[in-house]
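Predict the holo structure. Ligand: beta-D-glucopyranose.
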Amino acid sequence: MQIQFPQSFFWGAALSSYQSEGGNFNSDWAIWEKEKNLQPAKLASDHYSRFREDFRLASQLRLNCLRLSFEWARIYPSRGVVAEEELAHYKEVIDALLALGIRPLVSLHHFTNPIWFAKSGGWLKSSNIDSFLEYVSKVSSAFKDKIEYWLVFNEPLVYIYNGFLRGNWPPGEHSLSSANKVLDNITACYEAAYQEIKRVYGSCPSKVSFSKHLRSFYPCPRFSFGLNRASASLRDRIFNNSLLERIARSQCMDFIAINYYCKEYVQFAGPLGKECEHNYHQERRNYMGWYVYPQGLYELLLRLKKFNLPIIITENGTAEEKNSDYKEYLFTHLKSIGRAISAGVDVRGYIWWSLIDNFEWDKGFSPRFGLIGIDYTTLERSIRPFALEYAEVASSNKLEI
Ligand code: BGC
């Protein structure tokens, strides 16, 4: 059987600044790593100086789009102060992509904040929203003729969950009321940023959205199944649906951007439940311990049809040890997308996480998500074999299954 993808489908890979650039010492994560004694990002994958080499490899892999992020703390090292040389650096980055015929999709916030912003109360304070909007205004004006696709935030609910409920990311809070406050502030900020980009762009084409992490929630079949089912469906409602519906109502979304990785079994532990850790299901788990579940992507895509907006998968990927596992993950997920397209879902692009191996937050450097592997002693890059098979799909726009 053959799946034919729509013409001008986006075939891409993703990166984020803090995870790959290196040298982002003005960001709150740099302090967090020290405080918590975590493996530090330091030079990360040294993408800041090697971006040309990385983009050449992306082009060799026949990718026609690349998702990356700008580091807010680089551009604004202090409140109200623009580092013009860093803006110039990002101009070189974007120009290098455009010269290779690779379309950039740029995130403005991928989990990290400038230290000065975090110290002044961060996202807990609604009066801080203006600082982010100043940055949005600055960069959208600077890149108006180069960048069409903007992702204002990456996975706001993942950021809030880890930073304000679970407390394993900065600022390390465990408070439902803080989480709610931050959600309100980030939502309001997103809508204002959307309007600001539209105002700056005027008649120039712009497509603005945010990357929403979606997950397949299933009740843990052990213990009290009924309660587990209630928790799984509550998680699904709150985590998968609520924010998309809220933003869709405000009409501040030109396309739906989703990040999908896995299935999660939920066990009752208070209404929202908790992740059920048992591994008796005999289902495949990747290096991160995540349940690999391509069918979930198909199911979630069908549910997104109701929004009547084009969809781009802005992240999907895995960390593995064996090439065959990467390949299986990639191809089974592409097949789910093909099935969803045949069922009438308007999917316009697929972006693998990640282009190169990079810093995986509190897990450090051991998980390897890259199409391109990195030897961290020499920083040498090498294309993983499964990436060449991805390149074939990208260049033919077809998948044989
Ligand atoms: C995040 C990335 C992260 C990846 C793998 C995504 O949810 O956007 O920053 O590296 O998951 O965990």
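The chain has one domain: 2-395. Residues 16, 19, 154-155, 158, 213, 259, 315, 353, 360 surround beta-D-glucopyranose (CB under 6 Å).
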